[in-house]
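Appendix B, Record 12. Input sequence as logged:
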Amino acid sequence: MLQHPHSLYEYHVWANEQLFSHLEKLPTDVFHAEVVSVFPSVSQTLEHMYLFEQLYMLVLAEVPTGDIFPKIPGWREEAQGKTVDEMRQLFAGVTDQFRDLLRRTPDLDKAMTIEHPRYGSLDTRFSDILSHVVNHGTYHRGNVTAMLRQQGYAGIPTDYLFYLVERQEV
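Logged structural output:
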């Protein structure tokens, strides 16, 4: 892995926060407006991201798959119909859980085996799954930018380079 796992995760948190700050400045109807894209709205894209983060936080905590999948309907219900600020708060909660897990995991490159009911097992590393979480967020933040542009609004830069520049300025 090229970046330290903690730094990579902090980039992900920063990028999500940039997006939430930007969304709060736009008219409220933009968040739930229907568009033709990967997801039908910005809000539903963020709902998906939230579910994914919850799921993979538990995967990284080595919670058995059979205990994770039953939680998905509750997470989905928890995230549906939220405002930008309410969604931001949900993300803040899972971010706290991720940071706690990172603090409690001495070897962030430890070997793991992940079981998936559809795709079977995967021998991997904690850091690889954390990279997957970050990459997934990057992909969907790009979806949100495209959805905003369809509605006549600009996106917000969340590239890793912008994160590095901002960190350097502090």
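The longest helix spans residues 126-150.
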